[in-house]
């Protein structure tokens, strides 16, 4: 039996790169499961097929896609953007039910208390305290702001400002720009630098974020960066030399996590690029969901599958685990160890987050 | 009726019309002639509110209309046609005329949305007016023909019908016979005369002297934007300044008389044919 | 006076048929949420397309802020419902009125410009509307958007159910088409067509071009807001992206494919393109590689849209003035 | 020598020219009379390559010119002053005239003297040389159109109703100019409503009716033809 | 003060980039009355062609610039022949929609061939100039200089050469142009060639300071349309002034009302200017 897994994400337009990265993780996981002959659910051999629909990052297109997918009998759907997720969340429990696998670190998704949502990435608020601590002690007390103006970016900026002040620093004026439409970051950077900050808060999609770093270094900035979790060092490094990133703190590259080598190698061979957490977490997501299906003995009862996610996650075979994972919280969130990186002398040093912060 | 005092307009460095003073006598046919670029069409544009003069005033029936927008000038009773035949080619002749009557109707968006009685009444009235206008220019047979498919001359008539449907007191015609062959020119001349006979004040610009001489009761001559002569056809065609600037050999009286006789004869013949 | 005898007009019956058939659709599809969803989206965007059509098709003006007004309608409904706690049935008409008034205000300035400049001017306004919606966090939720706008109830009918919503959208569409048809055959509508055909000539016919343009702008933005309001309660989530130029151009596309200036065009175009796009999702990465050239071929070979194709297939008819006296459908 | 052989022109289902035959000998002024819609402009547009014929052809000095390629006609020495003028409204009068000499663009000295001749012919144009052509009065624009055609230094000049909208004095000047151009060796095919004036300078004439040549002959023959007298001379 | 001069340089570089893209568009839009929404697509493809030449063929940067300009010029010619030429007498929105179709096609096609990921286009000019704290990369200086030269050359070409005049003539009356013997289809091709080549040059010069991605054309599109309308459609000096105005509005507007609103400021300037001068800054009133 072939079971369809649904995916609605941006596959064309400005966010296509992001949507494709997520999709690649899903596809890779499914290909591996199928290559291994599938899984056995309630005595039946099951293989999987990914049905991807393009929503161009538009929530109403996500809704249309989800309705289309559910009407085809698909009951597990991956969505990688907060707007789409929040739009379709109320649909999960409407007839027909489906499991919504959310790839977004937006805390609101959990706050909706939706019984059929499964959220993969760590909440971004985990990062604040250690990021700020690292930078404020290394570089000094003045923070300049050049984040992106997406909802997510603004929420991050607010959170990081709050934390920075809490730890005794001062925050400059907000020079956030839209990383999606800005052609040239020089002006925003010039303005931020005119306040002589020690550290800059930056971050949006990786490559534009790297351009901000570039502009700052070219204008003579010598301080550190706090990089929002949306941007990935391993991709930024393709745009600017590692030396530009010295003093930056951000999410640890997937390849730097202990035990990810196998996945990184296989992924790189298959897609000719380095995997980021977009690929990695969605890859894990599929594996957890499939294990949960096996455990629940059903491929289409979303509620039953959801109930088995925690145990499935905890017992995920080593080969399928990329990040160390403890289980799934009752709210439907992956409970994983969060690791960050600090760039020093052109190398990543991992920055373990205090366990007390994990929620 | 329609008086203008010292009107002038300048485009950049070009004084297209300058210090023209006078008035249009009601009930007769006034012709405006003058060399190319003399400012005749521009003068029409001033009278009809298309251009705002840079000097002077225009008074219609005691009201200062110098600064009025075009559609209000039309509402007061001044209608015009354009030098290049300007009509809605993709609409039928009748629809063109219906549009001409729009200025006499008040139905707006709400009437349309609500389908009010006024909308219905005015719709009927527009149709009546349009038919009347088409009749006056002799196009009732072609009412439903797409205007763009009509002959050049019929298109000129459509443009006149459109203007007539506004119920004007004064009709300004800019070269109505341009591009029309002699036979049809005679017909058009007759139509215009009938309009005037019906009490309409007509002002026309024309280069076809034969037509002017048979039609005009009064002629005004523009040259370099200024009025250089005014008077009866006989007076004007004898005016040396006019001959010098405009008529050349065409003023020779014998030619004129001959043409006039010919055309009247022709008109009579056609008239009896059509009757 | 020899008026032509008013033709007994049967013009309305094909529309009646379409709507009766459309009303029967739920009997066929039963509970397939996807079919409803596509149909409802078609109807919502078709209403917006009718709004654009009265401007572009009748008055010859290209309003590129259209999605902005669609968004203003949607956000007005969303904000009034979520933040003020109003009922949809109150918020919806208010949204339409807000759009009409803002349309009027825009027109007062925008009609200083003409032709292409008007189009680009409104495009600029459209971008500004999107940006303001995107940045006015306190009111619009900014990038977060507005979430949780719920479909209303009316007595025992819950419009949260696809089938009920389908009928609501169908009714809204029918009202739209009825009104637009009335406008088209009215004196006002004819004057718009005159303006499209030539402003100078329209002026010389005594038409007050400026006020006519203002009115049609209001009608157009009101229809955009009407569609937007429906969209708000249907999707339940509002984000700024839907209010931007991409949506405007998408609506323009529907119009063009269906046939600009025709009564059936906006509906037909929206239907065809949206359904086609659903089919083309199957092409995955090749979707736009195919869709782009299709657009090109369409304008090359069916310049008058699909309704134009229809007209071409029928034997040409002498144009006959549709009697004004029987205005309406 | 221009020779038109069985030339037909169709617009969709409508036939504007029904296989007409005519010729213009070197050095002649030939006038084409015809009511509105008779097909005069259709003939001219075909002869200058703007319109492809549906049947038949026309040759100028043995070279086919009805291939729908206007630049070829101009190079062969056939230039048209079209109905509706077709000027470049935002370009200056002088640029309009200079573009008329496009096929001679390498000969700038020749073009300069040609330009001076045009200004001598129509002095008002010299005054307006730097104004955009679109801002000129109707009649002035007609002068630019004629001047532009002459700038191509044609051997055969096609004039489609050049007197349209011109003041009587200027009509005289235009016809004089046509005669002068003709005297300088240019053959002229002239479509006119103004039959009196046109026949005055013509050597021969054709009458076109409903897309067919119905009458042809020398100037005197036509001036004395009853049909012509009544229909085109208004006598 | 340093910040002021730094922003001035930022604005000049941005304005230079905008004007390079806008010039090709204004040529086609103003001169041939085609609102070529595919122009942003050509710009994007230009960047990819250069990128491909640099990375897979190892062609030197300035040679790649030239080759890319030729390739894009030819692509634009093809576009004119296949799409716009048949639509030459269609109403205005038809070419516009066709252009959108072409934009969709180019964007999706490039994504299909080269993937949706950002690419880096490296220029050999990597130095940074530092004038007492005011810094600018040499690449940006190159953009400023190149845009000035290209604008001058284009203006001279249109106003002072016969070929330039034929382009304008054809735009104003196609039949009239044919009648005087101008080979209009060759002129149309030439116009598109220039516009495509300019797009590629703009992309090659600007991409090293930015990123290459399939959607880079969309972002540019709206801005350059705003620019040419701002300046007055078809006006070459207008495109330049419009580009600088938009760049200055975005740069300094960002300083005064917050970088967040930079985009709004740009379009607000557009709307305000047009409300005051409906014909744009540089267009004569008809
Ligand atoms: N909108 C305008 N802008 C600039 N100049 C103009 C404009 N309209 C007319 N002119 C100029 O004003 C003068 C008068 O033009 P007008 O069209 O009134 O002449 P006319 O007497 O009607 O000539 P014709 O008999 O040839 O039609 C001309 O020199 C013309 O160039
Ligand atoms: N492009 C076209 N499409 C369809 N019919 C046309 C077209 N051009 C001309 N005709 C028709 O062909 C016939 C001849 O037109 P043509 O312009 O050649 O006449 P003409 O003798 O020049 O008339 P006029 O004196 O009005 O200039 C007319 O009936 C006209 O309606
Ligand atoms: C960092 C990402 C997981 C956030 C994602 N782009 C979103 O839209 O929510
Ligand atoms: Mg005139
Ligand atoms: Mg003709």
From TrEMBL, chain B:
InterPro entries: AAA+_ATPase, ABC_AA/LPS_Transport, ABC_transporter-like_ATP-bd, BCA_ABC_TP_C, P-loop_NTPase. One of its GO terms (molecular function) is ATP binding. It holds the Pfam family ABC_tran. PROSITE patterns: ABC_TRANSPORTER_2 (PS50893). Keywords: ATP-binding, Nucleotide-binding, Transport. Gene3D superfamilies: P-loop containing nucleotide triphosphate hydrolases. This is ABC transporter ATP-binding protein. The lineage of its organism: Bacteria, Thermotogati, Deinococcota, Deinococci, Deinococcales.
TrEMBL record, chain C:
This is Branched-chain amino acid ABC transporter permease. It is a multi-pass membrane protein. Keywords: Cell membrane, Membrane, Transmembrane, Transmembrane helix. It comes from Deinococcus ruber. The chain crosses the membrane at residues 12-29, 61-82, 88-110, 117-134, 164-181, 216-239, 251-276, 288-311. The lineage of its organism: Bacteria, Thermotogati, Deinococcota, Deinococci, Deinococcales. InterPro entries: ABC_transp_permease, LivM-like. Pfam families: BPD_transp_2. PANTHER family: ABC TRANSPORTER ATP-BINDING PROTEIN, HIGH-AFFINITY BRANCHED-CHAIN AMINO ACID TRANSPORT SYSTEM PERMEASE. GO terms for molecular function: branched-chain amino acid transmembrane transporter activity. One of its GO terms (cellular component) is plasma membrane. It is found in: Cell membrane.
UniProtKB/TrEMBL annotation, chain D:
Gene3D superfamilies: P-loop containing nucleotide triphosphate hydrolases. The keyword Nucleotide-binding applies. One of its GO terms (molecular function) is ATP hydrolysis activity. It comes from the Bacteria. InterPro entries: AAA+_ATPase, ABC_transporter-like_ATP-bd, ABC_transporter-like_CS, BCAA_Transport_ATP-bd_LivF, P-loop_NTPase. PANTHER family: HIGH-AFFINITY BRANCHED-CHAIN AMINO ACID TRANSPORT ATP-BINDING PROTEIN LIVF. This is ABC transporter ATP-binding protein. It comes from Deinococcus ruber.
From TrEMBL, chain E:
GO terms for molecular function: transmembrane transporter activity. The chain crosses the membrane at residues 12-30, 37-54, 60-84, 96-114, 141-158, 179-205, 225-248, 255-276. It comes from the Bacteria. The keyword Membrane applies. It is a multi-pass membrane protein. GO terms for biological process: amino acid transport. Its main location: membrane. InterPro entries: ABC_transp_permease (IPR001851), BCAA_transport_permease (IPR052157). Belongs to the binding-protein-dependent transport system permease family. LivHM subfamily. This is Branched-chain amino acid ABC transporter permease.
